[in-house]
Amino acid sequence: MPDTPARNTGAHVAYVELKRQILTLQLKPGERIYEPAMATALGVSRTPLREAVRRLISENLLEQQPTGGVLVPVLDENVISELYEVRAAMESLMARNACLKATAADIEALHGILARNAAVVEFADDAMQQGMALHAKIAGTAGNSWARRFHDQVSSQMERYRHFTNSTQERRDQALSQHRTLVEAVAGGNPEKAAKIAFDHVMAARDAALRAMSGNGPGIS
Amino acid sequence: MPDTPARNTGAHVAYVELKRQILTLQLKPGERIYEPAMATALGVSRTPLREAVRRLISENLLEQQPTGGVLVPVLDENVISELYEVRAAMESLMARNACLKATAADIEALHGILARNAAVVEFADDAMQQGMALHAKIAGTAGNSWARRFHDQVSSQMERYRHFTNSTQERRDQALSQHRTLVEAVAGGNPEKAAKIAFDHVMAARDAALRAMSGNGPGIS
DNA sequence: AGAAAAATACTTGTATACATATATACAGTA
DNA sequence: TACTGTATATATGTATACAAGTATTTTTCT
Questions:
Q1: How is domain A10-71 classified at the CATH fold level?
Q2: What separation in angstroms does the CA of A117 have from each of A87, A128, A173, A203?
């Protein structure tokens, strides 16, 4: 998040570590957080741990129960669909704005990333890396800090589902071609078109992910 | 926010009261929050106050300084433009989904709200009320809780700018006609069209707000 | 034995005390 | 006078102690 305090306070390290554990599913969905135990486990006292927990609650990476406990939210197919939709809306907006504001240097940088993207299309991890770089560059060019903030939040959420939405070679090829179209649209100076392409691109990723998930046996959690 | 704990804990009342003071500009933009003073002012100790403050920071209604103080974010024209854009993206998405999922009863409810909207078009407060009711109904029909959450966050933010973006009669008439078009689009079953109309509708509101602000002398802060 | 009631253990919420960092004011020196 | 170094005061970060509420287990009564 942009507002991460650079200082190495105990609350901050607790936040980072707890978030990591949640996103990697090291803390299992549905699991409850007990403050005293978690505090000693992370080597801080309850006060800074509590601060980290409350922050994660407001980022929706933890969930406060009405009865008064805190737990790791369970995974669910509807949620992942919602997340993709919001991501589509954000990337669409950013593509539109990037199109309006991009300088020649920005366009060149986008083409550079695209080339690297093409070079690694057969390696899942590198391909995702470059895909994210492309989106990051577009986001930076768009210059809407709120869109970026929400996009980051959604991306964090989606990490929890990563294991269920493994990408196939076919999917990566499709993504690469969509990225090409997207960069062309941004470079072409047609904001409406860029927005639509970005939207459809993410929605296609959503459909692929949902298909991959329903293929994975009982599915979630 | 949906995740507001219903319990009447001290941290919660501090959060609500502090948020109110920020949104009504009772706490002035740029003003710093001193924990001991604010805690006694709100009648709680530093611990629950701190919890409220940290939560407001992660909702971007307070700002942590690198040096270590907390202050009320200053207002700025770029931000309001960004907020409108994100709101446009969210409402566009929700209009699309509402279009896909709306039942006959939903459509009827929308028409009812529209009628009430028309009846109060000359009263600024009531008109805004009904406008929000319309958007709320669409949001409910769309059924994307994340879109809703972000939309709510943005709306909260925008309250701080309310005093600067007073609506004119002309603007209200325009909004009513756009609402009519929007409901027709949602009812008509064309998701793409509904999405585009919602987007343009909010962007038009943005332009009106920016014009109103630049008319208000030195403007902001 | 089964159900209701009481007691116990544990968790969360809050206050407060203490340590550390930061800013302010003052004094001494160039 | 301007500047640096020191001392003081104040704010933030953290730990801990205590209060209040909840769940669980044990005990008692039918």
A1: Arc Repressor Mutant, subunit A (1.10.10)
A2: 21, 9, 10, 20
d(CA A110, CA A69): 46
Q: pLDDT: is B143 or A163 the higher one? A: B143
Residue of B54, B86, B144 with shortest CB distance to A150: B86
Six-digit token string for A94: 């950013």
Q: Whole-number mean pLDDT of chain A?
A: 89
The reply to whether A166 Cβ lies less than 7 angstroms from strand C is no
Q: Which CATH architecture has domain B77-215?
A: Up-down Bundle (1.20)
By C-alpha distance, the chain A residue nearest B65 is: A5
Sign of the C-alpha dihedral computed for residues B142, B143, B144 and B149 taken in this order: positive
pTM of the model: 0.87
Q: How far from chain centre, in Å, is Cα A136?
A: 11
Q: Which of A26, A147, A66 is nearest to B90 (CA)?
A: A147
Measure Cα distances from A21 to A38, A42, A70, B214 in Å: 12, 11, 15, 47
Distance from CA of A25 to the nearest CA of B (A): 21
Contact across the interface for A86 and B51, Cβ inside 8 Å? no
Q: Which residues contact residue A97 at a Cβ distance below 8 angstroms, ignoring those fewer than 6 apart?
A: A141, A142, A143, A144, A147, A191, B85
Strands in chain B per DSSP E: 32-33, 63-64, 70-71
Give me the residue spans of the domains in chain A: 10-71, 77-215
pLDDT of residue A11: 94
Residue from B109, B170, B163, B173 nearest B141 by CA? B109
List per-block mean pLDDT (blocks of 10 residues) for chain B, which spans 221 residues.
Answer: 58 95 95 95 95 94 89 90 96 97 95 92 86 92 94 92 79 86 92 94 90 63 47
Angstrom distance (rounded) from CA A44 to CA A10: 7
Count of alpha carbons within 13 angstroms of residue B26, beta-carbon side: 8
Contact residues for A88 (Cβ-Cβ < 8 A; gap 6+):
A198, A199, A201, A202, A203, A206, B93
